[in-house]
Amino acid sequence: DREVAWAAAKVAAESCEAAEASAKAARATVKNEAAGAAAAAREVAVAERKAAVETARVEAAHQAALAEALAATAVATAEAKAAKAVEAAEVEAAKAEAEVAEARATAVAEARASAAEVAAEVAVEAVLVAEVRAAAAEQRVARFLSDADAASSGEAPLTPSRDSSRSADEPTPPPSLRRESKSTTPDWLRSAARHVSPELHEPDGSGSGGGASP
Length: 214
Description:
By secondary structure, this protein is an all-alpha fold. It is about 75% helix and about 0% strand.
């Protein structure tokens, strides 16, 4: 019995040693597997980190390109608006210059028209003065002829019958003006009379007109 027990104990000891060896082998295997898994996980993490960094770099580059495109678009839009504003300002300036030129031309035309009106009035007054002087000259010629006829026939020179105190050199109004009364004398005649030379208004002291020249 003792030998059998000893043999059984020996077998049990060998079994324990085998179990310990198996456990050691299992621990080694697990340790190796864990180390491999950790290494694999580490490699995966590194790869994922690299991929994330690359993705972030690509995304940043994309965002930068997008920002540059937006900035370029904004600059182009601003330049287009500025060009339109400049063009509109040039158009407004051209309109203003045209309006100024038109106003200047209108002012010049009005000034010329006013000058033409003044010149026409002066010409009318000159014509009236010329008519008055022509009438006075005709009257002088008629009186000279009458005096000459009277002298040749031996009679006294003719004198004005309506007003004996009027000088022979004083002109009488034209026939068209004799019908007008003194109270209704037109302004144009008064203006024309002011331009007549004094010798046509004042007596020359020659009496009844015997010394008047044509």
